[in-house]
Design a protein that fits this description.
The chain is an alpha/beta fold and 955 residues long. It contains 31 helices and 21 strands. The longest helix is centred in the last third of the chain and has 36 residues. It is a multi-pass membrane protein.
Length: 955
């Protein structure tokens, strides 16, 4: 049945309707789609002002809200609501939603820009003191320590290391990544789908796992050393999935018509890919390489595991540790010295500039779009093919020449030259953060003699493990091998070794506390109070127990935040040794709450109880840095006194058995350690130090040790022994002179002599006879007594228990900032063991002084006696070591041989601690970790493929 359309309707359907102009003859004003009207601007400004006003009303008058972040979020939400209401007055619902979406997107974009600008600006501001110095770009850190001003030291070694490591990674990843991306886009199939899934899974691979994989393969399996090449391999593992995934996406965007045209002209698949696909996707592939480079060049953990740490320039990526810019930043910003922090932020700024330079270089080489020609090429297209190739080659050569000239300029004149008279080889060590400030200064100073000593402060437990596994040439620790820690026994290493004391110091309690905005600098704490703070019994600073120690202070009702070490730490072992012996009941009760067995004893891993508000951080740099932040008021931690001195923060004075509150100055440490008992292997027993009746005693005083190899084993050679012995000769003599400036205490003469005997056990040790009289150690004297301990000033009467206190600043602070004190004179140890006095209202405290002595003599023949420096018992012994060395204090002997002891030396159980199990368990754990890694990467795509095939069969 047909229908007839009326003629009028048909005409209307095919006729274009013309809108008549306005009757008044004016043209209609059309609005641009993207244009903004005045009402739009008024709505935006009004909503913004109204949102801020409403938030002020809510925060100040209506609701108990506070905080800058909450204020900003609340203002933004109020702004969105008011803006929607204002727009709804003139627009429909669709326009309101469109405006809201636009505002949200622009707000998030502004947030990203602000965060980026803040990051860049903050980095440049913090590094502004280091960046203007020319030496910052042309020198390495071999001659700069925490006390060295910014006119010495720089980032040249890290800059070259980053360029070499990222160059190695690019040489590996670019051909592999582009080839894999071509395979995924050009050869579809089940294998391509599987590979694509694996690549996507690898993009989420943690960087530390990649570093651990290369470390296990290169260092543990192949038994190769940490170097720049290993770091480049680790970075390539991180960069490869980024380049493959981005390249795959770019190659799939190449128009199929171009490939079809190539095939129609008779070209094969390989030629099509090489001459059509890759040139077309050149710009996108360049972006993929830039993304991978940006991911790799900023990585720290893989480099830390595989390249090691080195303060000196090393342009050889195949041998010895090689630092990168991210690793240098990570190391320097955690140090307490303001100069090192400034260098760290300056290195971060250089890293940002380096990334920008690499980005511009990549865009210069491959940034043109396909088919885009220069003006000359457009005019002479017909005969330009040869000239284009020649010009591109010249351009690449010019870029390479420029980079070469820059590298030559950076390297010129700054490469450290080894002394012709002492061709020392590089040696590597790790361990104690307690001693790291002293080690940093010593390794810097010996550079002038042609020695390169790389020390990585990773913690005492980690250092002992690395020495045990043969990874390092020496270790620094406050705790030797041999006892059980929380049920785990740490067996001594199979390699031969000996202990050698290197420096003394006090484990101090650094705190951040203010009264009415003024920093407290004279806090006093009794041993029982300290134990209750670090076991969670006392939680408020205004607790009556703390108030009894500080009658002159009105302490705030602020929460106490104890900050403890999360890693295996010699500092933790020193604190828990004291807790287990002097505060036994409190310590055991706390350990039971933490799930440990009782009696708890000594541990290098501080136990934690959930819900007690403790902060747990790794390394002394981290815990001291946390306390030193202004926003962490109320926190307290335990660190070596050096960190408080260099950070500029006070430490608590500790009550001794004589009834006086003393600080951990060099002189007080020297006095305390006159009661230290030195074992036959030169380890320490501190029981009598805790109960030293001298009123000048700081109870938590101790020594730090170096663990030395005494045989040619693993990677240790006689050439390394030559360098290690020369380094030991330096810090046992010259290095002790400035120990007090760093917050440590110099070794007394008897321990220096005993340590020199230990040095002779090192294979390849230099035949060097140190002139003790020329060492200028402030503890030495002509009659053998400890000068620093003998001349140490007595504490003022105000620091006697029950006294008013409130005088004398501690650590890196002076009493001039102390609130609530009535003033008075103060005295404290100064550099060289003198005293410093302060006038009314502001006394100062010195940081110098050092030294102590242990029991026993520096040696002696069998059956003879030797007088003890600084008091205590006498002892005589025959060395009996494997190499036939003479006797040591209290009857020496290293792990290489036995000993016989005589006299009446007091021997005690060595203060040792366990950190890990034996090597077999470690290798088993590595294998299990590898299997888990493979299962995580491989199993998901396999299961996903099987599930997809199963769904296909069901359909």
């Amino acid at each position: 049945m047909s229908h007839t359309v009326p003629a009028a309707t048909a005409v209307a359907a095919t006729t274009t309707v013309v809108v008549a102009p306005p009757a008044d003859g004016t043209d209609e004003v059309r609005r641009r789609p993207g244009g903004a009207r005045a009402s739009d601007r008024f709505a935006l400004v009004g909503a913004l002002a109204g949102g801020v006003g409403a938030t002020v009303l809510l925060f100040r008058y209506l609701l108990p809200l506070n905080g800058p972040l909450g204020f900003v979020v609340c203002s933004w939400l109020c702004f969105l609501g008011l803006y929607a209401l204002l727009v709804a007055q003139d627009e429909n619902g669709l326009a309101v939603r469109d405006r809201l979406a636009t505002v949200v997107v622009h707000s998030l974009a502004a947030l990203v820009v602000i965060a980026l600008a803040f990051t860049v600006g903050y980095t440049l501001y913090q590094g502004k003191d280091a960046l203007p110095h020319g030496n910052f770009y042309t020198q390495d850190m071999s001659e700069a320590d925490s006390l060295t001003p910014l006119v010495v030291g720089g980032v040249k070694h890290a800059l070259v290391g980053s360029l070499e490591q990222i160059g190695i990674a690019l040489a590996i990843t670019v051909p592999l990544g582009v080839s894999c991306a071509v395979f995924l886009s050009e050869v579809p199939g089940r294998l391509a789908r599987f590979v694509r899934t694996v690549v996507e899974a690898m993009t989420a691979l943690p960087s530390v796992v990649a570093g651990l994989f290369v470390y296990v393969v290169v260092v543990s399996v192949v038994h190769w050393q940490q170097c720049g090449l290993a770091a480049g391999c680790a970075l390539s593992v991180m960069m490869l999935p980024i380049i493959i995934r981005a390249g795959d996406v770019v190659l799939r965007l190449v128009p199929a018509s171009l490939k079809e045209a190539s095939f129609a002209l008779g070209a094969g698949r390989l030629r099509t890919v090489w001459q059509v696909v890759l040139p077309t996707a050149r710009s996108g592939l360049t972006t993929a390489v830039i993304l991978g480079t940006a991911r790799g060049i900023g990585e720290t953990s893989p480099v830390l595991l595989t390249s090691g740490y080195n303060k000196a320039f090393n342009g050889d990526p195949l041998h010895n540790p090689q630092v990168s810019l991210p690793l240098l930043v990570f190391t320097l910003v955690r140090l307490p010295s303001k100069w090192q922090i400034s260098r760290g932020f300056g290195a971060a700024a250089v890293l940002m500039l380096l990334v920008l330079a690499l980005f511009l270089t990549a865009r210069l080489i491959g940034g043109r779009a396909p088919g885009e020609l220069s003006r000359r090429q457009q005019k002479r297209r017909a005969g330009a093919s040869a000239r284009i190739a020649t010009r591109n080659a010249r351009r690449a050569g010019a870029v390479a020449a420029s980079l070469a000239l820059i590298a030559v300029g950076v390297l010129w004149g700054g490469t450290p030259q080894a002394s012709a008279a002492a061709p020392y080889v590089s040696i590597d060590g790790a361990g104690s953060t307690w001693s790291s400030n002293a080690m940093d200064a010593w390794t810097t100073n010996v550079k002038q003699y042609g020695m390169t000593v790389n020390f990585n402060a990773t913690g005492s437990s980690d250092g002992r493990t690395k020495f045990k596994n043969g990874t390092n040439d020496f270790d620094v620790s406050e705790i030797p091998y041999g006892i059980t820690d929380d049920g785990v026994y740490e067996a001594p290493p199979s390699r031969h070794f000996a202990y050698m004391p290197i420096v003394a110091g006090g484990t101090s309690f650094m705190y951040n506390l203010k009264i009415d905005g003024h920093r407290v600098t004279t806090l006093r704490l009794s041993p029982d109070t300290i134990a209750k703070i670090f076991t969670g019994v006392i939680t408020k600073w205004n607790d009556p127990v703390i108030a009894a120690d500080n009658p002159s202070l009105t302490l705030p009702a602020r929460q106490i935040v104890p900050v403890v070490r999360s890693d295996g730490s010699g500092t933790t072992a020193q604190l828990t040794t004291w807790l287990s012996k002097k505060e036994t009941s409190l310590w055991n009760a706390y350990c039971v709450k933490a799930g440990r067995s009782s009696p708890c004893g000594v541990t290098s891993f501080y136990p934690l109880v959930n819900g007690q508000g403790f902060q747990s951080l790794g390394s002394s740099q981290s815990v001291s840095g946390f306390v030193a932040q202004d926003n962490n008021e109320g926190s307290i931690t335990y660190v070596e006194y050096s960190y408080a001195v260099l950070t500029g923060y006070p430490v608590a004075k500790m009550l001794n058995v004589a009834g006086y509150y003393d600080g951990p100055t060099a002189a007080n440490v020297a006095v305390a350690l006159t009661k230290a008992q030195i074992n036959s292997d030169l380890t320490q027993n501190l029981d009598q130090v805790y109960d030293n009746p001298d009123p000048r005693t700081y109870p938590l005083s101790s020594y730090s040790y170096m663990i030395l190899p005494t045989a040619v084993e693993d990677k240790f050679t006689t050439a390394k022994g030559n360098t290690l012995s020369a380094f030991a000769y330096y810090f046992l003599c010259q290095g002790q002179q400035n120990a007090d400036r760093l917050g440590y205490s110099p070794l007394p003469i008897n321990l220096v002599k005993a340590a020199l005997i230990q040095v002779k056990k090192i294979p390849g040790a230099e035949a060097n006879t140190v002139n003790i009289a020329g060492c200028h150690n402030p503890t030495f004297s002509t009659d053998g007594t400890n000068t620093l301990a003998r001349t140490a000033p007595y504490p003022p009467a105000s620091d006697k228990k029950g006294g008013s206190g409130g005088t004398g600043g501690t650590g890196g602070q002076t009493a001039s900032q102390q609130p609530g004190t009535s003033g008075g004179s103060t005295s404290g140890g100064t550099s060289g063991g003198g005293s410093a006095t302060g006038g009314t209202g502001a006394g100062t405290n010195g940081t110098g002084g050092a030294g102590s002595s242990g029991s026993g003599s520096s040696g002696g023949t069998a059956g003879s006696s030797a007088s003890q420096t600084g008091g205590g018992s006498t002892a005589g012994s025959t060395g009996g070591s494997g190499s036939g060395d003479p006797g040591l204090v209290g009857g020496g002997g290293s792990s290489g041989g036995g000993s016989t002891s005589g006299g009446n030396t007091v021997l005690a159980n060595p203060v040792t601690i366990a950190a890990s199990s034996d090597g077999t368990l470690q290798h088993v754990l590595m294998v299990v970790a590898g299997l888990l890694l493979v299962s995580i990467v491989v199993l998901p795509p396999v299961l996903a493929g099987r599930a997809a095939r199963r769904r296909g069969v069901e359909r």
